[in-house]
Amino acid sequence: MSSLRIRPTQPQDIDVLLRLQAQVYPTIPPWRRDQLAHQLEVFPQGQLVAELNGRLVGCASSLVILWDEWADEHTWNEITSSGTFDTHNPQGFTLYGAEVLVDPRLRGQRIGHALYEGRRKLCKALNLRRIIACGRLPGYHRVAHEMPIELYAKKVLWGDLIDPVLSFQLKEGFRYCGVVHGYIPEDIESGGHAALIAWINPDHEPSRPTGLQAAALAESRSPA
Ligand SMILES: CC(C)(COP(=O)(O)OP(=O)(O)OC[C@H]1O[C@@H](n2cnc3c(N)ncnc32)[C@H](O)[C@@H]1OP(=O)(O)O)[C@@H](O)C(=O)NCCC(=O)NCCS
């Protein structure tokens, strides 16, 4: 029987993650070791991997942001501070999904679902208001000569077309909020565009601080 486990990323996972990313995105510049190491320092709870029978087969990485600062158009490099997550802000209410990927040989086995479930659990545990992400639209290149990106995204919503990423995210309960242009310019398949998506935490309690805000407050009050 196979066993799937979602667990926090460890520094010793970085080599395997770099290999997996290069496999998944042969045309997009891969993350660097120092970026991944920095993400783990900045926000360890936000970095998750999927392990199938003890083998690392996917990951989901996130940071917390002040969404109001980014709600207008932004690029992946801007919002993630070039993949370092230096834009992580413990005062924020928004868990921002910077990456999710699954080993290409193991797609369709609900590994992506388990990673998204791990993210939703984290969002709830930290009493954050929502998860926001900008998802690639890798099916667009097939029809780019026929329609603008906005119509493509709508056709995916209407069920006329299937996009390998947006269709997955809609199944996962995310709402489509529009197109972000030039999000990852190197992403040829998506024409550089992305779909802004959001999931609202049904358990968010606005009267309570978020887990990160409470931790920062406790730290500021503890004697030096
Ligand atoms: C997107 C991705 C993470 C999905 O992972 P996955 O493990 O194959 O997805 P799952 O098997 O968990 O699928 C969950 C649900 O989404 C649906 N889904 C997944 N891929 C789909 C596709 N290509 N088309 C339609 N539906 C899809 C599944 O049918 C499943 O539905 P169900 O709840 O009815 O069973 C994976 O395809 C991937 O790594 N893509 C490349 C990296 C990438 O572009 N990531 C996005 C960055 S923004």
At the first level of CATH, the class is Alpha Beta
Biggest beta-sheet profile: 7 strands, mixed
What general outline do the C-alpha atoms trace? globular
The residue fraction in helices comes out at 25-40%
CATH superfamily: Gcn5-related N-acetyltransferase (GNAT)
Order of the strands making up the biggest sheet? 1-2-3-4-5-7-6
How many domains in all?
1
Total helical segments:
7
End-to-end gap: 51 Å
Radius of gyration: 17 Å
Bound compounds: coenzyme A
CATH T-level fold name: Aminopeptidase
> What is the ordering of alpha helices and beta strands?
EHHEEHEHEHHEEH
Q: What is the CATH architecture assignment?
A: 3-Layer(aba) Sandwich
> How many beta-strand runs?
7
Which structural class do the helices and strands define? alpha+beta
Q: Could you explain how this protein is built, in words?
A:
The structure is a single chain. Helix content is 30%, strand content 23%. The chain has helices spanning 14-24, 33-42, 76-79, 111-125, 149-158, 166-171, 211-221, and strands at 4-8, 47-52, 55-65, 94-102, 130-136, 175-180, 194-200. 35% of the residues are buried. The protein has a 7-stranded mixed beta sheet with strand order 1-2-3-4-5-7-6, sandwiched between helices. β2 (47-52) and β3 (55-65) form a beta hairpin. It has one domain (4-221): Gcn5-related N-acetyltransferase (GNAT) (Aminopeptidase), CATH 3.40.630.30. The radius of gyration is 17 Å and the shape is globular. It has 224 residues and is an alpha+beta fold. Coenzyme A binds next to β4, α4, β5 and α6.
